[in-house]
Amino acid sequence: MNNSLNIADEIGFQVGKCSSLGYLGLIYHHLGKNITTQQYCHQSLEINQELDDPSSRATVLTILGYAHQGTGMLAESVECFQEAKTLRRNLDQHHLAMEAVAGLAKIYLIQDNLKEAQLMVEEILEHLKTDSINGTLEPFRIYLTCYQVLKENNDNRAEEILNTAHTLLQERASRIDNQDLQRSFLENVAVNRKIVEEFSKLMDGVN
To answer: Which of 61, 138, 148, 155 has its C-alpha lying 20 to 30 A from 27's C-alpha?
Structure first.
């Protein structure tokens, strides 16, 4: 990703630079370095102001929302997700808007506002009845958030959404030929690992 950023910078390809900064921020978020993520995202958003690209802005705002959440800046995180959701809706990118909706649900969950968290999850579940979340940055994060909110609200749909998440996760993992990379995908990505752990607990309870 650093290489693509350097190339974009060298040739003055602002669109590429904007995108690379955002995705580089996402990588650092997964490494737990959310302050660095914030820095990259703010750089990306500065470039985006000149480009006037709402779709790219929504992507970076979503990543920044994750970073703010990771540093405890929940009010700022809500602002990012709210704006990202509005941008996606205005672009008729309703499937991508679900990522921001899930981001809001997670924050409400952290704040123990289970009523609002449930409303966000209901919106996602309604969407999934007729559409998918293919193309989102973090589809498994969306499923995990739905599961966590439903579980906290003692909603019997929690098990179903966890089963769906686990099935899709294993299908994705099965397409990775290298066993070490497959194991890393399942064990070293926090969201993926959590889904596997929760599914294992569910199976232990059944047995």
So the answer is: 148
